[in-house]
Structures are given as C-alpha cells and as structure tokens.
Amino acid sequence: MDGLKILFADVIVDITNDQVDNIFEYSFTDCEITLGSRVVVPFGKREIEGIVIAVKNTPRYELDKIKPISKLLEDTPALTEETLALMEHVSKKCYVTRALALRLFLPSEMRKGKVKEQFIKYLRLCDGVSIEQAVIGLKKSAVKQKELLNAFAEKDSLGYTYCVENFSVSAIKGLIEKGLIEIYKEKYNRSPYKHIETTSKDITLTDRQKSAVNSVIATEKTTSLIYGVTGSGKTEVYLNLIENTIKNGQTAIMLVPEIALTPQMLKQLRARFNDNAAILHSGLSAGERFDEWWRLRNGQARIAIGARSAIFAPLENIGLIIIDEEHDGSYVSESSPRYNTIEVAKFRAEYSGAKLVLGSATPSIESYKNALDGVYNLIELPERINKRSLPDVEIVDMRKEIRRGNNSPFSSALKEELQKCLDRGNQAIIFLNQRGYSKMVICTECGHVQKCEACDVSLTYHKEDNSLLCHYCGAKYKMIDACTECGSRFIRYGGTGTEKVVIELQKLFPKARILRMDKDTTQSKEGHFKILSTFANKGADILVGTQMIAKGHDFPSVTLVGILDADMSLHFSDYRSGERTFQLITQVAGRSGRAEQVGKVVLQTYSPEHPVLQRATKYDYQNLYKHEISVRKATGFPPFTNVVRVLISSENEEEAVKVTKSIYGEINLIYLENRDKFRFLGCMKAPLKRLQNKFRYQVLMRIDVNCTELIDKVFYVSDKYKSNKMFIALEINSNNLT
Ligand code: ADP
Ligand code: ZN
Ligand code: ZN
After folding, report:
1. Res. 16: pLDDT tops 70
2. Cα 664–Cα 669–Cα 675 angle in degrees, nearest 5
3. Nearest bound ligand to the CA of residue 474
4. For position 194, what pLDDT does the model report?
5. Whole-angstrom Cα distance, residue 263 to residue 527?
C-alpha cells in the first residue's frame, strides 16, 4: 500500500480497573492520529475509548496480534505533550494508574461521548438570489414564502427556529426546494454566567502593587509568594500579571479556593479580557464545561479560571499560574487521585518555563518557610489599599455569656453590634462552619445520640426538610419523634447550625433581610452566584454562611463580621489546628471594612486566652509562624516530615484488622532499616471508625522530607493487599485524617 505507512500507538484504554495500567498497542494508518488523540479501539468484544500516549514506528508485539485503531474521535488531540507529561507525573506522584490520572484532564462528559458540540441551524439566501425577482416568481398564494423571503431584506441570516415560529415549516421547505434559501449550521458555545455584569474599575496600581508585579516578572525563581494582608490589592496584581502574560502571547491559569469565588473573578477577567477567559468547575452544566474546555483547547480562550481542578486546563504555552489563597485546604484533593494542587502547579510551571504565583494573607507554614529559605521569591504587601486599617477584633468569652444565662448563639456584644450595623444601613456576615439546624439530636432521658446506620457519625438535623442527614455518606433519615433506644419523647438539639442561626437572627431582627449560604442553599445551577450577587446588590442585610463565605469576597458595605465558633477548628486534633484557625479568622475578618467605613469583628469563643486567638486578633502572623515552625521542628511534623497514612477499610472488620497488622509488620521492616528517617510509626483504628459500612484502620507514620523513596516502598507493600473487598489508600499530608 503505497503512501499508507503503518504506525503503532500505545493507547490508554478507559476502563475502571485500578489494578492494571491499561496500556495496549494498536496500529493505524490515519495520518491525523497523533500523540494525545482520543480514539476508539477494539477491546475484547467491545469497542472502547482511549488516548494515544505514544506513537512508534516499530511495534512491541508481533504484528498479527496488533489490532488497528477503529476511529479517531476528534481532529484536535485532547492532550498535548505537556499535559501527557503532567499526567505521567500525577500518576507517579499520586500512585494511581494513568487511566485514572487521565480523567483529571478531560471533562468527564466527554468520555463515552455523553456531551457533544452544539450547533444551531440558520437560514440564508442562496448565492446570487435577488429577493425582488424571487418574490415575483412565487405563486400568489404563497404568502408565507413571500414573507419569509422579504425577511431576508433586513437580515443576512435568520435562526431556523425563529423562522419556524414566525413563518412555517412548509414555507421554509418550499423555498429550499426552489433553491432560494439554504440551511447552514454554526457552532454554539454554551457559556456559563452569561448574564453576569462585568465590573471594571479604573485603577492605577500603587507603588507597592507595581513593584509586586515587576518582582514576579523579574525574578529568576519559578515561584513567587505574595504575602499580602486582606484588602491589600492582590487581585489587582494578579490581573496585571495576567495582562502581561497575554500580551506576551502566552496563556494563564488562575485558581481560587472555592467555586463560590469564581464568578467574582470571572467578572473582573471578562471586564479586561472579554471572551478570553474560560471557566472550569464542577458547578457548571455538562455542556458548559465541555464548551469552555474546548474554547481553551482551541486557543479561543487563553485564560483558565476555576477551583483546583482547573490546574489541568488544556492550555498550551503557559506563562503564568496563579493560586490565590494558597494556604487553603481545598487545594489538596481528598479523593483519588489525591493530588496537591501546588505540587502539580510547580511541575507545570517548571515544565513550561512559566511563573507560579502563590498569594495569601496567611501563607501556609510550608510556603512561608520556602520563602524565608529563598526557595520562593517573597513579595510583601503589608498594608490595605489607601492605608485602611484592618478591622478591630473583639474576643467575647462565651462562658461568661452562659453564666449570665444567655443560651442563644449570639453574645450580647454581637447583638449590639448587629443592631448598630443594621441601623446604619450597613451589611453583616455571620460565619459558622456547620450547616443544618443542629449538629446532633440527643435523647435527654438516656443520652443516646442518633447515628448513621452506615457510619460511626452523629446525624445532623435539617429542619427545612425535617430530616436527619449524615454529612459523611449523604444518607437521609426521617426526623425521629421519639428516641430510637428508649422511646422517650424528650429530644434535645446539640450544636448550632446555619439554619438555626438564621431562624434565631430573624427573631432578633424581624425586619432584617437574611440570606444563608451553605452547601444546602447552593445546589441549584449558579446557586452561589445568585446568593452572592443578591448580597452584593444590597438585596439582603445579613449573610449567614459556612466556609464558603469566609474567603476572598469583596463586599464594600460589610462592616461587621461575627465568628460564632472559632473553637471548632481550634480543638481539632490535628497538628495544623492552630494554623488553620488563624487562617480562618484572618480570612473571615478580612471581609469587614474593605471600603470607606471602618470594620469590626466579633469573635465568640470558650477559650478566649488561647494564644492562637490572641495572635489572630492582632493579625500577628509573624509570631504565629515562629511558634508553629519551632514546635513542628521539635516534634517532627511537616514541613520537616511528611505525614503518611495507609488507610485500610473493609466491610469485614476481621479481615481489615488482619491486613492492617500485615501491612504494619512490613512497614516496620522498612522502619527498622531506616530508623533515622522515621519520626513516628503506629497502627490503630482511624478516628472515623466506620464509614459507609466499611471499618477503617490506619497505619500512620511521619517520614523525613526528601525521602520519597521510602514513601514509594510504603506504597508498594500496602498496595499488594488491595482487592475488591479491601480498600487501601495512601495519603500524604492529607488535610483530613478522619
Ligand atoms: P485582596 O485580594 O488583597 O484581598 P483586593 O485586590 O480585593 O484585595 O483589593 C481590595 C479592594 O481595593 C478592592 O475593592 C479593589 O478594587 C481595591 N483596589 C485594589 N487596588 C487598588 C488601587 N491601586 N487603587 C484603588 N483601589 C484599589
Ligand atoms: Zn433515649
Ligand atoms: Zn453515613
């Protein structure tokens, strides 16, 4: 066959079997097929999708064993050399198969062709047709056809559905048959947040902002850390850096920690860059995500914005990656593949020669250490724009409130401040990291706490749909009217949630317009956006919410922030609880007093003298850092070690215990050979003992940094025990060691 050279491809086949890395060899002659192409291949008796990850002249296997690729799915390869390299990196670093790593790079709807491009049909005159002459040629009775023809006098093209509705299908058919008009199709982009109004402020950068921009551009280091207090104008710095990148003909990725923050950022990006910004996150409709993805892949959009998964955006020639609020826990994925977004970003930036910018008012201890050690380029923005002061933080001792007989979720200080705030026509934010009405329901007779049948977790009462919800597995139960243990009808609610806060607030301030923002109120499409824009447009006076409202938002009229439960994260048994609490308070407090008016924060706690809270009220990051870093050095916690957990779970508890012991035994051998590199090794029940009917055990260890080969060994010994009935996961510095 002349000219038809046979080539060979390694193809990752998209089947969910995480035991095998599904790479198979196929042949092809279609010259359009290349590295990164999505293809359909024969697999056993089926035809399945796959991705070409290597193209070769000579096959590994014997020719007659190699089947040809059946079909090329799209002309443009979905992956590039760079994203393929990144996929390999993720697969190695996160200990997952390539097939699983690949899924990060493709909108899930693209697989199995669940979503396709959308086209819209239009009508236009055929070439050389003159309306006047054509009308003369029509029968007198063809009124509709004449009207339709005349409609083209004003417009070159008309929507097909418009014509069906306003004329008739038979009129359209008639004109097409006469060769007067024709149908053509045009691709239609499903574009999210279409009705968002763009905001563009005419801003001249301050000298500090200018030097921040210049510093990122000038530094030879890949990574810059912008340590800038809340309201110091970091966003403006990001926008200028992006502008510079686009001018250089390169592309940029901008990450924010919450989906809720993407519309705000998109507004500003659209104001400057129009359609050049595309948004990627899980809250979009399948079609929108698909179209936005392709706009990035085709180069129609050169700025990708989104939450953590947008780090896998299909961009080429990347010049800049920005991770805003880099300290945020959401940047570490907690389900497989368990990737750390900053690590992935570093790889991408280094591979492409791009700049990585991390920004925060409260950098993670690890990032700040890297900056002090000179690994990162450190840029500081120590003041708010126009030297506005950071809001005053008042600590309220809730123990005293209770002694005084105040059992409501609000201290008298907070009530007073709320009243003042509302009287002045300002807005307030009330933060509480617990959704639902009450965290648990307890029997006052026997003390029984209602628990999930599948998990070792107390159920949260949701008043709106009168149900008990498991926040871990999502199971929903009917609210009880009597204790399931003793039958008593005396049920107490323990622990306040956002639903209850709204109800109580409404009682206190009957005229106030209150909005609630949490997982339950943001399920609808663009749900975040609707609540936030209502609040931004002063359609409400008080916004009550969970961590969704804690970060990033810029509401000029907010002058009061109430933090209801700072203690929840403070007493969490995790080496980062101090760091996390400090970050949270600083972030929430940072929402107050961002414009002309001075802001105020009321922080309610049962541990008012706790050093972390004391430092947080003074925004004393430096001393928090000094304290944390010395404690972690002394006790051997990150960033000096990696916390590694092997999580073993199974429906069969006996088997889980057996496997845990075996894994522990094998890891112990590694430990004995490397005592100097281990800071801790132990095995035990996981803090959350049962989840979705699976019993959970763990082998926990801390290994010095720079000993990744030891983590590899730990993975290989544990992975052997994996089976359909034995779930085994390796977690490195996970944010959630429940
Ligand atoms: P951060 O991201 O550091 O919290 P923002 O970038 O949101 O801070 O800036 C805080 C506020 O200051 C915003 O309303 C922003 O529009 C405004 N701002 C930023 N830079 C300037 C500037 N150079 N001149 C005037 N206003 C500015
Ligand atoms: Zn009871
Ligand atoms: Zn459950």
Report:
1. no
2. 105
3. 3
4. 75
5. 11
